[in-house]
Amino acid sequence: MKNINFLFVLIFGLSLGLTSCEEFLEETVKDQVSVDYIYNSPAGLEVGVNALYNQMRFYNLPSGDNSDLWANVFFMVATDLGLHRTWNTPYGTGHNPQSFTGSKWIQGYKIIDRCSAIITSARSIKMDEAAKKRLVAQARVIRGELYLDLKQMYGGILIDTIPTTPQNINDPVEYKVASDADVYKLIDGDLDYAIANLPFKVDPGRYGQGVARHIRGKSALWQQDWAEAAAQFDAIINDGTHGLVALADVWGQNGNHKESLFTYQKDFLLGPSDELAGGGGSWLSSVFTHRTYELNTNELVQDVAYGGQALGWFYPNNYLKSLYDQANDLRFKTYYYSDNYQDYKINVPSNPKFGQPITNPAIAAPNGNYRAWHWSLKKYHDSEKLPMTSNSYKDYMYYRLAETYLLASEAYHNLGNDTKALAYLNKVRRRGYTGNPESTVTTFDLTAWTLNNYLDESARELAFENNRWFLLKRLGLLVERQNLYFRSSPSGTISGEVQLKMTPAMVNMPIPQSQIDLMGKPAGFNVGYN
After folding, report:
1. Nearest CA to 289 among 396, 375, 393?
2. Residue 271 to residues 49, 265, 274: CA-CA distances in angstroms?
3. What gap in Å lies between CA 57 and CA 13, rounded to an integer?
4. Range with the lowest mean pLDDT among 99-103, 367-371, 525-529?
5. 397 membership: H or E segment, kind and range
């Protein structure tokens, strides 16, 4: 029985292009790569797997200003660490099944369908067995990753491993919420297969054993299987393929360093489009950055060193700022644009004070104009971004070893081994204070593992990456912490800051109403939403 996929405008993954169901049924294949070739030949199987990476890059790093970008930005900023100024408003009037973007739900299931098609078709393709297993393993990592994503985001989800074909697209459909046990069995089965068939060392932009184990460890944490989580994280740490890098290099221009478990690849010369190998221009480097060049046009013009073209839609908030030891924690200056105006120099050549510190922004921007001046995020800084554009083609590190260490710390604490839990926590912390990933300086070590110490250190290291929202949800703290600290300032001023209340139902994202209607409004989905 085919049980879900006719709900979506399906992607049938090809090497460079995507076709709809209608196009798939036509005799002429417009991009000249037949579906038979994709799913019935060794070379075609590889083309299909390559297409999955393009689709995943669009899923997690879409180009431009659209609902797909918002679907990703939401999870980066709508936590206890964020401040909203403009654009889409987290937890506002649009947080409902009718209005909230359905990008993650729709795109996620599209890619799952193509993963299942590759996994299923590979069984009948005659080719080198080891090579086939490696290709299938990549498809299974992606499918397992997506099901974990959907489970974390939506709570009640569907599971389906039968790929859509012209023969089954009109089969009877059954819609029901899958049990937690069934969802995690599928996720863990896919990831365990991948772990068994992928090496640690892979080319940039490919899933290897490290990222498969990292996701498998996360799945174990959601199931409170602390021993399994610890074992998976230890395997990554002890293998040696991955390691922490110098603090200055973590979010430098090269995203394919040793700390990266997986980095999405961008290349303007091979694009620039989400459908092409190079990928479209990402706006992440502009979304979180203040517009210093608006402070005083006689002193400042756009400068790539100060973020270049910026949007200033979201910022780190004062709560996050309070967590840093600003005098000693090097991450405060490395991961963020400085909030000391003397660090910014007049760069208008005709100004007689060229090269001297800019005018005090408190004078230039009264009442704390957030758009022009605010403590802002530097992690996605692109030193090669062209002037006057929000498009960035910098590679995007999505999974990294620092998070592995921190999650391993949590797992060991829950196993009753705080000695190892603290060793892992302080490994990351020492790098933050010294810049050196191999530092043995104990001056700033934490001496007790507490939940607050753990959450605070995680915030200092991983803020505005794709993890805080999910971590707080897993720990049952999302609503409480968000309501305490998340702020919105529609006016873009200090005096305009307000709280936006998150309701308990919002710990699960709203499934698009269009999808609920097509399913016949079955029970168990969108619980708590009207």
Report:
1. 375
2. 19, 11, 8
3. 13
4. 367-371
5. strand 396-400
